[in-house]
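Contributing: when you submit paired examples, paste them exactly as shown. First protein:
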Amino acid sequence: MRRSPNLTLKLLAGLGAAVLMSFGPGSPSAGAQSDAATPPAASAVAGDFVGSLGPTDLKLHIQAGASGTLSGTLDSPDQGVIGLPCSDFHVEGEKFSFAVPVVHGTWSGTIENGGALLAGTWSQGTPMSLTFTRDTFVASSNPSVVDGLWLGTLPWDARTLRIQIAVKSDSAGREYCTVDNPDLGFFGLPCTNVVFYGEVFSFELPAAFARWSGKLSKDTHSLRGTWSQRGHVQLPLNLERQSELIPPTPPRPIAYDPAIQPLDAASMQAVLDRDLAGALKHGALSRETSAGVAIGVIRNGVRRVFSYGQAKPGALFQIGSVTKTFTGLALAQLIVQGRVRLDEPVRALLPADTVAKPEGAEVTLLDLITHHSGLPVMPDNPVHPDNPFADYQVANLYHYIRAHGLEKPANATFLYSSLGVGLLGQALANRAGTSYVKLITEEVLKPLGMSDTHLPAYALSSDALAPAGALRSTPEDMLTYLEANLHPGLVTRGVRNSATLPTALELSHQSRADASPGTRIAFAWFYETDTGTYWHGGTADRGSAYIFFNPEHDYAGVVLMNTPLGRGGRFADVLGRHIEARFAGKPAVSLTD
């Protein structure tokens, strides 16, 4: 199971991976309390609410204590984030506000219709409208025979994962369900298209690009069926009725390893041997997980590559959304070569009959590479509902754009969009008169000498979203890429299109807009204003990646894993930030989980 590609940058606006790194999935009953509310005011907002921040569904749980104190949590089930603690509750008349400290977010607004509606604004640096509606689910007085708790085990690589499903029906007879994966720390993932007819029960799980279908046994104690994921993985998953729910593991306090002197590249492996000992014995890299990680580090021109667990340094890894930074560099190349303009409407790079000119402001190339276009994370017309990336061709992309339009919303804010970067890559290929794979090869990979980095065969002609996450690479090649970003002026000249690369690299580093508090965005790169570090993460079917570089202190690192997730989140992100802290001589989040 997995979250959708880089969903960590939706609700969390660039810091989703950091949230899972610093605060694991929590109990829905957890949360900080405040004495700001009187009992009548508390009762007006107590309960469960649902809302949407762009394409991301949210759930707000507020409890009122006997004295009127409020506590609560916020869930983002699409992202597998459950139980973010809320605090600083304030109720004054119809005004209501609270904070979510772990993501540096606040919500403020008004209580309407006697507490049926909480209308207001979410802010993580840039305000966005966010209205919560009270969850008015009314359980059926005559529950369906399939209602209840179900538990099964799913074979996954060399291990098994527990899958827990909670099914309920409402007073109108509609079925609902949520899916938990206790072993990976995901709880409350919402199902869609839940159907029970005759003996057949089925549902889809968008967060995992998955679908389950099976039959209820005659004694109603078992569900025998098949789990399909990303359109091609077919696995048996049989479920047995349960009487008790496996609850989420309460969050543990954030643990840090003490700061040490800033490391050079040659010293990093010895320190990580010690720091990763727990993870290798009983954590994210233990033998039972089949997980492995390859690491590359560089400082002051000295490189080192090494690995842990079930991975080898020379292996090829999926880098997921790190691909977006390559698309950003291709954009910079075409700008420096005078073939496109940053403020150019993307409509101008599409076939003439693709989409009509909007009445208002148009989405530009800059809007796409900085995630300020207003386009959603993914299109809503996938070829395969359980795998929106599979066989999604350029014609499908254009069909979506024609229906959606390319008018930029007023006051558009950061909204992470794989769709937007996919569209950008196709538009750049159009302008260059070639395919995306040839564009990225000729403008980036060959000039940098990255001979082991490429797109898989399926992306060569049929994947319109390849520019957002399809590249595969090795630690050595990724260090070559990072070294070029550290020292654009040292890029080797003489290869076709290499002459414009130094200027293009520098252009791609210029921060252009806010992403979240303390974080700006350049050409897909996230830039931490307090440290001067650029970074990006990525997740794919069978791998995850995290890369970073700091020009001021001349260091960079890459973490490539053979699994998309670790326990409680993307371990590649956690490890990458740990390595960065060791370079900087700062306390590092503990790698023992």
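Second protein:
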Amino acid sequence: MGVRSVAGEIEELRRQIEHHNRKYYFEDAPEISDLEFDRLMQRLIELEREHPELVTPDSPTQRVGGEPIAGFKQVVHRTPMLSMDNTYNEADLREFDARIRRWLQGEEPRYVAEQKIDGVSVSLMYERGLFTLGATRGDGLRGDDITHNLRTLRDVPLRLRTDGGAAPELIEVRGEVYMTHRELARLNKLQQERGERLFANCRNAAAGSLKLLDPRLSAERRLRFFAHSEGQLAGLAVTSHIDFLEQIRGYGFTVVPHSTPLDSIDQVLDYCAGQLESRHELEYETDGMVVKVDSLKQRARLGTTSKAPRWVIAYKVELWQASTRIRNIQVHVGKTGVLTPVAELETVEIAGTRVSRVSLHNADEITRKDIQVGDSVVVEKAGKVIPHVVRVELEKRTGQEKPFEFPARCPACKTEVVRDEGGVYIRCPNPSCPAQLKEHLRFYAHRQAMDIEGLGPALIDQLVDSGLVRRLPDLYRLRVEDLAELERMGEKSAQNLVANIEASKDRGLARVLTALGIRHVGERNARLLAEEFGSIDALLEAPEERLAAIPGVGPVVAASVYQFFHSRAGREVIEELRRFGVRMTEERKAARETKLDGKTFVVTGTLERFSRAEIEDLIQKLGGRATSSVSKKTAYVIAGSDPGSNVEKARRLGVKVLSEAEFLEMIGQ
């Protein structure tokens, strides 16, 4: 074969390998098997070994690692890699927003919120499109030259993809090198077999891998990279952070998961809350969110301190982890029929509480994390709230573990289960399923729903198991003599419960909509719908487009509400509740008397007589509106103890601040 033919084959192999790298690492949509990919790579290695004059620095073969190096050279960062200020609470994040607005002197900032990857910070330098230098953050001014190891990462481009256009003269991309949970489990199993030290977590493993002197060993570790910011730039015109991320995405980088531009700190907090709630779904470690001003021009005006830029802050969560063993996996049926696997653990203490059960969320989660009964697992609590399984400790497997088979039928009623179309949830479709009914009754009786005191889980189990309650409206058929026959239910308790059930009939439309358990309809959306329509009849007649047009509702909630009220089961339950005298209108009895009609309130701090949900509910009933942040449209701020920055902002804007007592005096209570 002539040199020209060899060069053509080499070029075609490189093109194919880079294409499949992109499909695997960037798009998560591999087109060929690992074996087929390895054959392409092996053929390229053979041809380049036979024709070393055809090897180029950006060839995929240069990722497999060269010879060991003698040690790390120190490099000076052209632009310092500063640290970030950080916080663990919402009040500090609001204060960050207040500072930004003060410094910008009335100019409105836009923010971008992105995942804070718990990895190793690195800098990648590209000159005329070619990767020439990679370094650790070090002390911010100087770092270690780890180019040899960074070249082994499949999602670090060796040459920028410019689609025939000119590459920037100089571009420095900064980001995080990380390791996935699955790779850590594989690596620790391999370390154990070799009799070598195990890694405690993904970050330690990534850091250790980058500091190896032999790049061939680093290449075995399958590290990954997320790009998240810029350093030195020459020949790249961008005006915002979002512009920069989109530009380098086109060059071939995987950019850190991030929001669209957000116009207010409330939007930032909502986005962060959603991201933090779904951390368990990620294949990598995060320890919070990073909030950045989007405009590069505004960033330049805000500047930096000696330690950190003023335009960025890390919104972190406290993390606690412990290792334990899964004794068993049970499946729980929720009020909407969703089957949720729950792991029963050998009890372990995490952040001062004893944890013996943890949700595994869904069948796909079990498969993705390769969880088996008997496995040793790492369990994490983020922010001292809900624990979840981070990863399986594969190195501790004994061979006695058993794969978990997700049930094909509902464990409560034996109905064949179905998977949501295009979703991850598996449901029992039987509306008469006793397990669903029990959960629905617990939700219906909840304080924020119909508030039926005395209707607890044990009694609900008895009511359903005895057949006294077969459907939700059957609650209103219960008599004292029926209840008195139940275990631990005397006549006085029965009388009290019947009275409480009767009292629930007058809770109003918002509470009924909350209690019905319509998918995607929580307390907030229920209030919006009740305020908008005022009666169940008006809501039943509303077309889906009308529902979707309500500010704060949107198409997903609208579709769910419309479907519920136009289903046979939904119509039947409404008509039965109506026959029993359940009020399904929203009265605004004292709106004119108390002068709350249309006024906006912000509640901040800890109150004495009310929880925040209770006082916001009262404001809504009296015709007012409750929001979470102070603006020029806010009429009053109700401040309890430890109120945070909302009070300062209110005074700055001239918004009146009320104590709890002053608010009660205003409404005549």
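If you have annotations for the second protein, write them as plain sentences, like these:
The domain at 85-316 is CATH 3.30.470.30 (D-amino Acid Aminotransferase; Chain A, domain 1).
Residues 119 and 178 are 5 Å apart (CA to CA).
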